[in-house]
Amino acid sequence: MRERRRLLPERSKPEVASRQSSPAATAAARIQSETQPVGSPLPENATAAQAPAVKSDSSSALNVSTDRLRDYVGAFVLAGLDPRVGAEAEFFADHVQYYDQGVMSREQIREDLKQYAARWPERRFWFAGDMTVEPQEGNRVRVTFPLRYQLRNRAQDSSGKIDKTLMLEMVGEDLQVVAVSEREAE
């Protein structure tokens, strides 16, 4: 496998539970602001309102509420902490434009996620600002959000902030990630 060009060491994806709708709804109540990293206990008064605000460039022909998009992205981020390594793969379409690696199958992505989790067994991710929604042609929408991360293994650690972009497509009643990329946050 060729060397990846990612800002998060060897992978920048958070992972989520296996179903798209129910984990997203559950995750909405757990999404936390920059001051409350994912994986930390929630304060007693925590609510879904602590999720990143959503900035929409225009209304989309795709009929998906901004709350649903926010919940979906929150569940995707939380999957990076799921004890079921590779759970995030369930959010991906069968074939995905995967960072700078070209098109990869869901199974190839699952293997990449397993390797990433083995390299970085201690992972924390949290939102670091507002989410931007840009409607695209067809049943697609581009969602970009700033994400802070802390990664650790026995020998090293890494932390920083990226802007992650997911291209989401509505298939039936479910959303799927059809492309994922990231860049260093400003």
Structural features, described:
- Strand 6 (140-152) and strand 7 (157-171) form a beta hairpin.
- The protein is built from three helices and eight strands, in the order αβαββαβββββ.
- 19% of the residues lie in helices and 34% in strands.
- With 186 residues, the chain is α+β, with helices and mostly antiparallel strands.
- The protein has a single domain (21-30, 55-184), classed as Nuclear Transport Factor 2, Chain: A (Roll).
- Strands 1, 2, 3, 4, 5, 6, 7 and 8 form an eight-stranded mixed sheet that branches.
- The model is unreliable at 1-7 and 10-51 (pLDDT under 50).
Brief write-up:
The protein is of the alpha+beta class and 186 residues long. It is built from 3 helices and 8 strands; from the N terminus they run αβαββαβββββ.
Produce the secondary structure layout.
Layout: H1 21-28, E1 54-56, H2 66-79, E2 92-98, E3 103-105, H3 106-119, E4 122-127, E5 131-135, E6 140-152, E7 157-171, E8 174-184
Can you give the mean pLDDT? 76
SSE class: alpha+beta
CATH topology: Nuclear Transport Factor 2, Chain: A
Outline: globular
Count of discrete structural domains: 1
Biggest sheet features:
8 strands, mixed
Query: Any guess at the CATH architecture?
Result: Roll
Task: State the end-to-end distance.
Answer: 30 Å
User: In terms of quaternary structure, what is this?
Assistant: single chain
Q: Which key features would you list for this structure?
A:
Nuclear Transport Factor 2, Chain: A; alpha+beta; 8-stranded mixed sheet; 186 residues; 19% helix
